[in-house]
Amino acid sequence: MIFRGLWNVPFITNAYLVNASLLRSYDSTKLTFSLPNVDADMAFCYSLRDLDIFMYVSNRVDFGHLINYETYEVTRAEPDMYQIFENEQAWEEAFIHPQYHENFNPEANPKQPCPDVYWFPIVTRKFTKALINMMESFGKWSSGKNEDTRLEGGYEAVPTRDIHMNQVGWERHWLYFLQKYVRPLQEHVFTGYYHNPPRSLMNFVVRYRPDEQPSLRPHHDSSTYTINIALNEAGKDYEGGGCRFLRYNCSVVDTQVGWMLMHPGRLTHFHEGLLVTKGTRYIMIAFVDP
Ligand SMILES: O=C(O)CCC(=O)C(=O)O
Ligand SMILES: [Fe+2]
Questions:
Q1: Per-residue pLDDT, 134
Q2: What is the ipTM of this complex?
Q3: What residues contact 115, with CB distance under 8 A and at least 6 apart?
């Protein structure tokens, strides 16, 4: 329980909100922050009390918040992305799509571009840009071949050219994002399916290019459900691309940056990554299972 109120207090340290014109209306020899043997806060509060000026602490209004930078790692590409635990509120403001909470509005039907393929705004362009930059700064894209030493069996049946989240030290963060922001959307559209936290062993960013890997053949994912976030812009950053669900002969080609597709992984949603004919297409994929 958070109590909200306005409290009259004798001493405040670190944070003040003072109208400067008020300060000027007092005699500066009496209203001072320097007194012998006490620190500036003590001196300032002492002289305020001496002048019968009341001090208040209020949390009725949000004036902003302090950032905790103790764990801030400046050596990383996009250190802000790693702050999801330490600075949750600032993280959400920077990286969660402004329409995210609207997804839960009972009046609004979730978008469904193909049968049982749901489509949600979830992250900001700041997020998608940062994620691409994290991956490109790391730069060690997989070969896109079946042999994959990052996997337990050393083999990937339907390989993409990709970088896994754990390769950039961002897996814990990503799993927390899945639990906090993706899971409630899943529960919203696939009713009665409940796994908290969701488990996801495969979390990666895919890069398609005409001269590298330009497409992905039809396959099922090793997931109960898959999420697929568009990280850059169809028709501008690349041409072609998109995801086709063969059983429904239905494609999503007008993907929107920061929007996420969510679809069942096996059995019904046999799908393929459509050919990129120009530029580079980036997507973020997670195979959630269970
Ligand atoms: O290109 C797409 O949108 C589909 C990607 C995909 O199916 C996968 O990575 O498993
Ligand atoms: Fe897939």
A1: 98
A2: 0.99
A3: 245, 248, 250
Are 120 and 252 within 8 A, CB to CB? no
* Both tokens assigned to 252: 């999503």
Q: How far is the CA of 216 from the centre of ligand 1 (A)?
A: 7
Nearest CA to ligand 1 atom 9: 285
pLDDT at 1: 67
Q: For the segment 88-117, what is each residue's pLDDT rounded down to a tens digit?
A: 999 999 999 999 999 999 998 999 999 999
**Domain parsing of the chain, residue ranges:** 6-58, 92-288
Ligand 1 mean position, distance from CA 106 (Å): 30
Tell me the CATH class for 92-288: mainly beta
- pLDDT in the model for residue 20: 84
* Cβ of 283 below 6 Å from ligand 1: yes
In one-letter notation, the amino acid at residue 1 is: M
Tell which residue, 201, 202, 183, has the closest CA to residue 120. 183
